[in-house]
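Exercise 7b. Backbone tokens:
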């Protein structure tokens, strides 16, 4: 790892005149070599495999608290296909006086640093306990820190004191956990600090939804929002940098819980002779939990359907124009997905080729079913919804659920994610998630065609039971709120959304995981009665 002078040497305005040339050279090396190589290896770097020509520090401030300081930087990347910017706060620690901080930052080191005889490390500040504490404290105080082209704005919610407690400054800070787009730091199972890496200008739906559900709707089964950190540019544009939420103790997400349940169930009957009957109510314990999930989902939608003067959340009547828009989008998705499938048949695993051919042969029927579903009566409302709802977005906690990650569909713009829709779009996402569980479990358990023939009906029967239990419990909890007209699977708006989701999955799997393409193919066949 290269060595670098400390952060003050990166900026020509912070050095004496005779060192300006050295500062410019150091800055150029940092932006064209050190930072690009570091960012390229991070899980949150979106353009995986794409080389970065330069990582420009477009906005920065040296944030100082006592004897400790951090370089809070917004970085713009050159060399990638689209203009992207990232949040990269950096911390420095010196070996002679910051042994523990050096040790923590070494796990997220960007570069070694030196200052005369002193050596140390510069690393991702989310690995620095003092930085995380400072962010939370600044949220509590509602601080603002000027930057060169804008400001950092720290804000608490009305629930901050209740969530954080009086001793939040003393909470131990865990090592950061990375994900595809964020960095998460837990603080003694009470607080969760979530740092956003890839930045987008505009109102972030997760912050907006978190604030509304915490302060206005008081929805109990989400992670309450305690505070936020945003960058406010001089032109008024905002970018969310971090959020502070209550930590949710849990037994894992609904996806892993359900997948393990299904695997155990299928393993139990893998060697059972064909034709042996399942015990009555074999899945009742699991179905009880799914009914709870359905009720929590209905409660979320009811909370988001409350009358309000906030235009971003006020419900709107579903219209014929809305349904026509849904219809047109589904038809376009169907054409695109089926054309993509036809052009990529050679990439489809041999075992899934019959499914692929069956789906392609049903092209006209699929289009006709879309038209039939779109004849639904335009009754119900459009509200803010989760937008990317599936079993991976719910945490299992003491025989209950907490709904998380209100960012919306990652591939959509912030405006699209904030749009209002029928709540049945969330329901369709959960229905498809059940389908993914049964197909994924089946594929991981069966070893030959005989086992597949024996277990596939059991897996499909489980899915149908789960779908029925969820829909009936959701309907019982939501029906009097007049959110929708019909919950009949495969028909009406719900059917339209289910197919649209399966078509999206088909395109995704063809492009990213061809080995999984059989799962959405089977979903399309099941939807169409195949």
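Sequence design result:
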């Amino acid at each position: 790892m290269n060595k670098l002078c400390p952060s003050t040497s990166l900026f020509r305005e912070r050095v004496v005149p005779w060192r300006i040339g050295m500062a410019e050279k150091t800055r150029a090396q940092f932006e064209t070599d050190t930072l690009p190589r570091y960012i390229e290896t991070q899980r949150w770097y979106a353009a995986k495999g794409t080389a970065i020509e330069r990582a420009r520090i477009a906005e920065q401030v040296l944030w100082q608290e006592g004897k400790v300081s951090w370089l809070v930087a917004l970085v713009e990347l050159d060399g990638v296909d689209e203009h992207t910017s990232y949040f990269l706060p950096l911390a420095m620690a010196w070996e002679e006086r910051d042994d523990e901080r050096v040790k923590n930052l070494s796990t997220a080191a960007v570069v070694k640093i030196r200052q005369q005889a002193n050596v140390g490390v510069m690393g991702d500040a989310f690995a620095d306990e003092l930085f995380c504490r400072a962010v939370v404290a600044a949220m509590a105080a509602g601080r603002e820190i000027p930057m060169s082209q804008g400001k950092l704005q720290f804000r608490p919610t009305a629930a901050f004191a209740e969530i954080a407690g009086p001793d939040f400054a003393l909470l131990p800070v865990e090592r950061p956990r990375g994900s595809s787009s964020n960095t998460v730091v837990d603080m003694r199972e009470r607080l969760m600090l979530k740092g956003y890496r890839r930045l987008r200008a505009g109102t972030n739906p997760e912050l907006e939804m978190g604030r509304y559900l915490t302060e206005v709707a008081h929805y109990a089964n989400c992670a309450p929002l305690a505070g936020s950190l945003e960058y406010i540019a001089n032109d008024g544009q905002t970018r969310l940098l971090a959020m502070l939420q209550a930590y949710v103790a849990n037994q894992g997400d609904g996806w892993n819980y359900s997948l393990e349940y299904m695997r155990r169930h299928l393993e139990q009957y893998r060697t059972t002779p064909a034709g042996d009957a399942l015990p009555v109510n074999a899945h009742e314990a699991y179905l009880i939990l799914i009914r709870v999930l359905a009720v929590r989902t209905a409660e979320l939608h009811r909370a988001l359907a409350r009358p309000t003067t906030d235009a971003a959340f006020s419900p709107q009547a579903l219209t014929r124009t809305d349904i026509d828009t849904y219809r047109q989008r589904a038809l376009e998705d169907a054409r695109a997905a089926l054309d993509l499938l036809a052009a990529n048949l050679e990439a489809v695993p041999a075992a899934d080729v019959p499914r692929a051919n069956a789906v392609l042969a049903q092209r006209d029927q699929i289009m006709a079913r879309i038209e039939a579903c779109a004849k639904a009566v335009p009754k119900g409302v459009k509200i803010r919804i989760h937008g990317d709802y599936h079993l991976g977005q719910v945490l299992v906690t003491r025989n209950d659920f907490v709904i998380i990650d209100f960012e919306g569909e990652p591939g959509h713009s912030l405006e699209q994610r904030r749009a209002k829709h029928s709540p049945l779009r969330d329901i369709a996402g959960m229905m498809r998630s059940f389908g993914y569980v049964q197909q994924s479990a089946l594929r991981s358990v069966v070893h030959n065609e005989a086992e597949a023939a024996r277990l596939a009906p059991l897996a499909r029967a489980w899915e149908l039971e789960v779908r029925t239990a969820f829909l009936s419990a959701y309907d019982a909890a939501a029906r009097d709120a007049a959110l929708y007209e019909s919950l009949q699977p495969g028909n009406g708006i719900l059917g339209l959304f289910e197919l649209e989701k399966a078509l999206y999955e088909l395109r995704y799997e063809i492009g990213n995981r061809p080995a999984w393409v059989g799962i959405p193919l089977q979903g399309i066949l099941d939807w169409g009665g195949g």
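Instructor comment: The CA atoms of residues 129 and 527 lie 50 Å apart. The chain has three domains: 3-125, 131-246, 254-266+284-527.
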